[in-house]
Amino acid sequence: MRDHFEIRDGDLAGRIGRLTVPRAGVTVETPALLPVVNPNIDTISPAKLESEFGAEILITNSYIIKKNDHLREEALDVGLHEMLDFDGAIMTDSGSFQLAEYGEIDTTTAEILQFQHDIGTDIATPVDIPTPPDVDREQAEEDLKITKQAIADAEAVDTGEMLVNAPVQGSTYPDLREEAGRHAYESALDVFPVGAVVPMMNAYRYGDMVDAVAAAKRGLGVDAPVHLFGAGHPMMLALAVALGCDLFDSAAYALYARDGRYLTVRGTEHLEDLEYLPCTCPICTEYSPDELRAKGEKTQEKLLAEHNLHVTFAELRRIKQAIRDGDLMELVEERARSHPAMLDGYRALLDHVDQLEREDPASKGAFFYVSNESAHRPEVARHHARMDRLTAEGNVLLTEGGIPSGDEFDDAWRVVPPFGPFPRALSETYPLTAEVPERLDRDAYEQAARGVARLVEENPDATFTLAHGDWPESALSAVPDTVAVESLEEVTEKLAETAKSDASTGAEDE
Amino acid sequence: MRDHFEIRDGDLAGRIGRLTVPRAGVTVETPALLPVVNPNIDTISPAKLESEFGAEILITNSYIIKKNDHLREEALDVGLHEMLDFDGAIMTDSGSFQLAEYGEIDTTTAEILQFQHDIGTDIATPVDIPTPPDVDREQAEEDLKITKQAIADAEAVDTGEMLVNAPVQGSTYPDLREEAGRHAYESALDVFPVGAVVPMMNAYRYGDMVDAVAAAKRGLGVDAPVHLFGAGHPMMLALAVALGCDLFDSAAYALYARDGRYLTVRGTEHLEDLEYLPCTCPICTEYSPDELRAKGEKTQEKLLAEHNLHVTFAELRRIKQAIRDGDLMELVEERARSHPAMLDGYRALLDHVDQLEREDPASKGAFFYVSNESAHRPEVARHHARMDRLTAEGNVLLTEGGIPSGDEFDDAWRVVPPFGPFPRALSETYPLTAEVPERLDRDAYEQAARGVARLVEENPDATFTLAHGDWPESALSAVPDTVAVESLEEVTEKLAETAKSDASTGAEDE
């Protein structure tokens, strides 16, 4: 049990949590964005990040500070908080990024952790190896050994109240990511960055990112606060939160602003291409694109950085509200339509439906069916898995229509795509109250047919009739042969005839 | 040709246009939002609508003004523009809404048009009959006769420079909507409101709304400026613009604010339910939900109305930018995931793919495949329709792989889901440059198979081999029997063997 991290609410594998950072004397609400502050460049001051954007935590780089005489002396002298003028929590990176970029750095985990401690870091980072995607398995294993050693070295340093990151590597090998997650979780360290996903995101490989994070999460305990290192584009935050990531850092807001790039939840635009500013933020409601372009380089950069941060923080608020409302999946569904690579990420997420299902709350406010993918949500898998608790006896009608008046059937259950059959008594329980479109797709019908098959499997002694409202052939062929299948129209006609012949029989009896 | 409306750019059936309003001496860029200004209630002043939100046009109700002694005298005395303090264009409604709500009004088209003219209206409205959905056909026809008479009455009034609306009614009967559209278009009037869609939107019947608008548009000429009367929720604006609507009016921003409702592009929230404000607007970045709730009723209403307007105007800017970029369909795809009813609306839009295809530009920047529905976009239908221009001769390989080196085939075409086959020379032309996810759905493969079938049909003398990369059975079964179907793997093996045997034959010749 990690007692510095408390989970307050959840949806899918995402959660609203509280990360207690003892050295800073603050509690950070997660999911949280850590703006990256470059100690050499002052795009937006940390004080403004705190007061105007509500940043509770930021991240800067201890290796850059250590390598610069002036910064090092100041940091050692007054401490990071005073140097940056920031009261929230401060995480520092260790130089691992520089190691990955330039091949070597002249520090060690023990040394850089001590330095981070000396300058007043609240959450520190050892020197791990960010293994890129697609390397040989041998290299991934070799690198992982070094990262594990860095974790052991970090455990050996007396860091007092300072929290320490235990990075999770393993490249694109899910089993290595899972093992790395388990190893990190079993250490005495505190926060768990999933590393080296930036090359995947830069290459728009969101499917691979999802697989890597899902694997790491399988190794980590549910109570582990997880940092998706280097991820801060608002487009992918909902997806990453749905996987169970809690912390994100954004250098993008400032780096992109520097070359005129404008973030949106649907992707990245270039200011030079915009004729309209598709945003409500204070910058975009005050200026036109031409007015922004007419600003001097520095002012334009600052204003774009502010826009970029507004968009990113608002998306985090949207995600938190979605977790509260239990409709995070609906938000992920929307974001999946911003780019084919995001759809890949979403479809990859659904490949891990069993993993999601274990953490997803059993009851929420509403289930909105908004795409073919909705048929493959955790709620549908859960309904199918729970068929083993539903007992059907005798001659059972499974129908999309109303209850028949005759006595041909011992029981009449409802059938609702995408879930399948259930006793009428469950009609008002989540997710069977789902709202679905009139124009339903075959994925929904096929999933309902699979539900029928599961029910039949669990109740071999009962006999079933399925009365469906014009299901497609692909769904009907998934219904077991032992089920009598009739269209709703046929059943209605037949029941009417039976009623008539009952009535005439009755008349003869008189 | 309507010379007061000029179309500058288009995507799907949506367009950016310029509506010249001679009496106001202004040109309004469309798609445009007309905030509804209630002359009795000053939520946000028209001057502020103009200066802070960029409103170029608004709408108010001439019937309410006429019925109120004080308002009538002032409007007749100083004119609407001075009375409201607004320099943009002013459209006025006629009392038709009151007629629909309360059953009768005491005015006529001739009288109210004259009154609108007298108070300085720029775009006036006759007294039409907003026929609700699902009425008997007889009633819909009867009502439509009255609306047509109102249009004739309006044509007879000398309105000078004032533009006049020609409403399109017809309830839920597509043929009546189309006929009404044609009749209105053939009149001498200027702007074309599609009426009585509010009851459909209130009941979340977006599929029916799409069918009604699509039918009206079939009757109206492409150059007709179309007003979707009573529609202003930001969630559905992209869909409505994609259908070819140009003007929208929003009373929602103020009415919703009055009872604490908070608009988003994903639907409507209640302020009381929000723990976070999921928006970047100046209100939502300045206040927390608790701070907003702590405001007095009037202030809270005003702030919520401002938020609601920011969201709505920003969505219109986003839509216009999407038209410029040629990715309006991608925006519609996203908005379709906000509610099952919006998915119905989007799927209904795709039912009208042939109608959309006629106006959709042939070339754009990018085609993003982001859902099963993407397989049914106009570009795919167009590619299939154009198979009649593609000539295939001899023995043709259609392949998802590379060009074979042997001489077994006379030609090797590419096959790309969801489009189907095309000669390699077309590879770099829109939409064949589409970006698709790795995890492709069967809709994409099945559409590609339909493309193959169309090519075969157009080229009965050629013979075809399809080399596919693991297509699903549902797609393979749509490939004509005359096509030799092999998996990419099989073809590669076979070609390698042929090359080997050719080589060995060559060796024997030496």
What does the secondary structure layout of this molecule look like, with pairings?
The structure is a homodimer of 510-residue chains.
Chain A: E1 5-11, E2 14-21, E3 26-30, E4 32-35, H1 46-51, E5 57-61, H2 62-67, H3 69-78, H4 80-84, E6 89-93, H5 96-102, H6 109-119, E7 123-124, H7 137-156, E8 163-164, H8 174-186, E9 192-194, H9 198-202, H10 206-219, E10 226-228, H11 234-243, E11 247-250, H12 252-258, E12 261-264, E13 267-270, H13 282-286, H14 289-294, H15 297-325, H16 328-335, H17 340-351, H18 353-359, H19 378-385, E14 395-399, E15 411-416, E16 420-422, H20 442-458, E17 463-468, H21 473-476, E18 484-487, H22 488-509
Parallel strand pairs in A: 4-11, 5-6, 7-8, 9-10, 10-11, 14-15, 14-17, 17-18
Antiparallel strand pairs in A: 1-2, 2-3, 12-13, 15-16
Helix pairs in contact in A: 7-8, 8-10, 10-17, 11-15, 11-16, 11-17, 12-15, 15-16, 18-19, 19-20
